[in-house]
Design a protein that fits this description.
- This protein is mostly helical.
- It has 6 helices and no strands.
- It has one domain.
- It has helices at 2-17, 23-45, 50-56, 61-91, 96-123, 127-135.
- It starts with a helix and ends with a helix.
């Protein structure tokens, strides 16, 4: 057990400096793009913050999850496939659990963390932004 935890940790840390490290920036950036787009759409519709609504809105939970997966699902699958390719090239083996964890961290986490705040900022912009918008 101790050996597998050590290998798992070392394999994850090696991704930062190994080949294909561009994906560590590109995939979260793609997830953030979709989060901003969907957060602005939520603000226009008057929807509550996405992550909060997943826990508080029982009736709309599945619809919210489906909507979020529709946006970030392709990024998640791309992250999984690219990590699998990385593992075959660099580790000479495929560890699906690691690929799923990396895909979650690179695609789903940034999406969840940004969609709600973008919604709130778009609905209630800071005072400085409001002043500039009313002056122009």
């Amino acid at each position: 057990m101790d050996h597998s935890v050590t290998r798992f940790t070392q394999d994850l840390m090696a991704r930062v400096t190994g080949p294909m490290k561009f994906r560590l920036v590109l995939q979260p950036a793609m997830a953030l793009f979709f989060a901003i787009r969907d957060g602005l759409k939520d603000a226009q519709e008057g929807s509550p913050a996405y992550f909060w609504a997943l826990f508080s809105d029982r009736e709309g939970r599945w619809a919210k999850l489906k909507d979020g997966w529709k946006s970030v699902g392709k990024v998640f699958i791309l992250a999984f496939v690219l990590d699998a390719i990385y593992q075959v090239i660099e580790l000479r083996w495929l560890y699906p659990g690691q690929a799923v964890l990396v895909a979650i961290v690179l695609a789903i986490v940034p999406y969840l963390l940004l969609r709600g705040p973008v919604n709130r900022i778009a609905r209630h912009p800071p005072k400085v932004v409001k002043e500039r918008l009313t002056r122009d």
